[in-house]
Write a structure and sequence with these properties.
The chain has 85 residues and is of the alpha+beta class. Strands 1-3-2 form a three-stranded antiparallel β-sheet, with helices on one face. Helix 2 packs across helix 3. The chain starts with a helix and ends with a strand.
Length: 85
């Protein structure tokens, strides 16, 4: 039985991660802010992997550069909030 099961396995197995683009993540953030209107900076990081954090941060910076969002922080080291303009 075990030897037959080995024959059923594929010869080559390749696992690929789905890469998230800045454009895709920007659209996701827009959708979040359309529903919530405002959110905390930390709430936008659902996954804490290095690529996800970098893409999310770049998306936020791009949206700020394009004047799509407003980023507020009342005090040094205080909570950062993001809202749609």
């Amino acid at each position: 039985f075990l030897s037959r099961q080995k024959l059923n396995k594929p010869l080559n197995t390749k696992i690929m991660k789905k890469e998230l683009s800045v454009k895709e993540r920007t659209n996701q953030i827009r959708n979040i802010l359309k529903i919530k209107k405002s959110c905390h900076f930390e709430d936008l990081f659902e996954v804490l992997t290095k690529p996800y954090v970098v893409v999310t941060f770049l998306s936020i910076l791009e949206m700020a550069k394009n004047s799509e969002i407003l980023i507020k922080q009342d005090n040094n080291f205080g909570e950062i909030s993001i809202e749609m303009k």
